[in-house]
Design a protein that fits this description.
Chain A: This is 2-oxoacid:ferredoxin oxidoreductase subunit gamma. The complex is a heterodimer of chains A (187) and B (353). With 187 residues, chain A is of the alpha/beta class. Chain A has a single domain, classed as Pyruvate-ferredoxin oxidoreductase, PFOR, domain III (Pyruvate-ferredoxin Oxidoreductase, domain 3), CATH 3.40.920. Chain A is built from six helices and seven strands. In chain A, helix 2 links the parallel strand 4 and strand 5. Chain B is built from 13 helices and 14 strands. Chain B folds into two domains: 207 residues, Thiamin diphosphate (ThDP)-binding fold, Pyr/PP domains (Rossmann fold), CATH 3.40.50.970; 114 residues, Rossmann fold (3-Layer(aba) Sandwich). The chains are: A alpha/beta (187), B alpha/beta (353). At the A-B interface, helix 1 and strand 2 of A face helix 8, strand 8 and helix 10 of B.
Chain lengths: 187, 353
């Protein structure tokens, strides 16, 4: 099984970190992973994206042409990556910011009100984990446990206290998918 | 050691430290700055020497000094900065000093941009600076291979008393993959009796220089260098093949592009095209042997590069007119995607039938 994941959004939304967390978690599960950032002359507020491949087999190209999963956190990223999602793939949309709607009927669309859920949890900074929760629940690419373990490893001492909130965020994201808040492709 | 998730640039730095390099002189430039930053952080921890020079020219000349003293030393840059180092590389070659120079290539010519490119192939494989010299060039395609080839770069440099280039591109430098650093035994290499570490009163002073005003003496020195390059050509060629055994067509690609080509080859095979790949690992010396082996068996070769067509010239020399050699490339920092490589393969196979 190979997951080709593109995460895209504004610089500062945590795009690179989300990708790194997925790659790290994949590695802890002994999967093959690669993490490739867009590294043009990016700046805060500009758009950034990262390509993460998680695979049972050794990875050929780390460049993703047609993602099996695109996680889009803002409108420009939606416009850029929604058309590229592989047929039968998944588009996960940050509904709190993105007001565009996918007209494609050959992909699964999951819309996640990240900011609303994160503020209910009481920590706006865990918005990314809400999205990741929805992603891993739907794709089963990696386990929630691996994400939490990876967070413990990648977060500095000073930020370890954020782990419970992230755990809750992952669960809230997952429950959206469990509750069927998903637009499935028309067979 | 457990696997760690690191950027390619950081892997080069850590691999150099594992190879016993405790001296680094550098100057930051995207997309290789993480290498400099990593060294700045790590070398003081192991009582090494990190120095950020005032320019690339200064850095390569500091390398000349450290190499003269017989220590393992490295510098790194990206295309425009690598160009600046060429005078120093020529001096290293002339003075027969071992050093490792990293080039994480970016789009050119000129200041170009900071996206990945392989358009420094001519420069690294044909000398780069002035005078008759070559440097061994190693081109890893994965982060794990960086670990292996960085160690090899230092060993080759010491064994043959020559500067060695480790060539990547921005993609290899910026991407992360899990890597494992294995504790290998150090290769036993000739003692550096030439190093200018002081004579302590016994014997003549040691001199490291690339200056020789007498023409006949300088010609003799050139003969010595050329004989050394012949030995390197005989002994140090490295390459890899992929699905080549029954191939009717052959892609030639190196570095990160070979990974994109691999994906395209797999898809082409699913479409019934019998295609394989030769991946040069040493760009100089260029692996001629696999071409001698396959040029009578395959219908055509396709060189795929992130350049306007540079390695393709060496491919044509190695194929020596025995089969058609086509080219596909993207320039300016554009990464070819695997479907356009697949299209190029299809058109090669269509045209060859």
């Amino acid at each position: 099984m190979m997951h080709e994941i593109v995460i895209a959004g504004f610089g500062g939304q945590g795009v690179m970190s989300m990708g790194q967390l997925l790659a790290y978690a994949g590695m802890t599960e002994n999967k093959h992973v690669s993490w490739l950032p867009s590294y043009g002359p990016e700046q805060r507020g500009g758009t950034a994206n990262v390509s993460v491949v998680i695979s049972d087999e050794p990875i050929g190209s780390p460049v993703i042409q047609n993602p099996s999963v695109a996680i889009v956190l803002n409108n420009p990223s939606f416009e850029k990556f929604e058309p590229t999602v592989k047929k039968g793939g998944v588009l996960i949309v940050n509904k709190s910011i993105v007001d565009l709607k996918s007209k494609r009927n050959d992909i699964t669309v999951i819309e996640v009100p990240t900011a609303e859920i994160a503020s209910e949890i009481g920590s706006p900074r865990v918005a990314g984990s809400v999205i990741l929760g929805a992603f891993i629940q739907h794709s089963k690419a990696i386990s929630k446990k691996s994400i939490i373990e990876s967070l413990k490893n990648v977060l500095s001492e000073r930020k370890q206290h954020l782990i419970p909130a992230n755990e809750e965020a992952l669960e809230r994201g997952a429950s959206l998918v469990i509750n069927g808040d998903v637009k499935k492709p028309i067979a | 050691m457990p696997k760690v998730l690191m950027k390619g640039n950081e892997v080069i730095a850590e691999a150099a430290i594992h190879a016993g390099c405790k001296n680094f002189f550098g100057y930051p430039i995207t997309p290789q700055s993480e290498l400099v930053a990593y060294m700045a952080n790590r070398l003081p921890e192991i009582d090494g020497l990190f120095l950020q020079a005032e320019s690339e020219v200064a850095a390569i000349n500091m390398v000349y000094g450290a190499a003269s003293a017989g220590v393992r030393v490295m510098t790194s840059s990206s295309s425009p900065g690598f160009s600046l180092k060429q005078e120093g590389v020529s001096y290293l070659a002339g003075a027969e000093l071992p050093a490792v120079i990293v080039n994480i290539g970016r789009g050119g010519p000129g200041l170009g941009n900071i996206q990945p490119a392989q358009s420094d192939y001519f420069q690294v494989t044909k000398g780069g600076g002035h005078g008759d010299y070559y440097t061994p060039v190693l081109a890893p395609s994965t982060l794990q291979e960086i670990v292996e080839l960085t160690k090899l770069a230092f060993d080759l440099a010491d064994e043959y008393r020559t500067p060695v280039v480790l060539l990547g591109d921005g993609m290899l430098g910026q991407m992360m993959e899990p890597v494992e650093f294995t504790e290998e035994d150090m290769k036993v290499l000739p003692e550096k009796k030439w190093a200018t570490t002081g004579t302590r009163g016994d014997g003549a002073p040691k001199v490291i220089s690339s200056l020789e005003l007498n023409d006949v003496n300088l010609e003799n020195h050139n003969h010595t260098l050329q004989s050394k390059y012949e030995v390197i050509k005989q002994r140090e060629v490295r390459f890899d093949t992929y699905r080549a055994d029954d191939a009717e067509y052959m892609v030639v690609a190196y570095g990160t592009v070979s990974r994109i080509a691999k994906s395209a080859i797999d898809e082409a095979r699913e479409n019934g095209i019998k295609i394989g790949m030769i991946r040069p690992i040493t760009l100089w010396p260029f692996p001629e042997k696999p071409f001698e082996e396959y040029r009578d068996k395959v219908k055509a070769f396709l060189s795929v590069e992130m350049s306007a067509g540079q390695m393709v010239e060496d491919v044509r020399l190695a194929v020596n007119g025995k089969a058609p050699v086509e080219f596909f490339g993207r320039t300016g920092g554009v990464i070819p995607n695997h479907s356009e490589v697949l299209e190029a393969i299809k058109s090669l196979a269509g045209g060859g039938q």
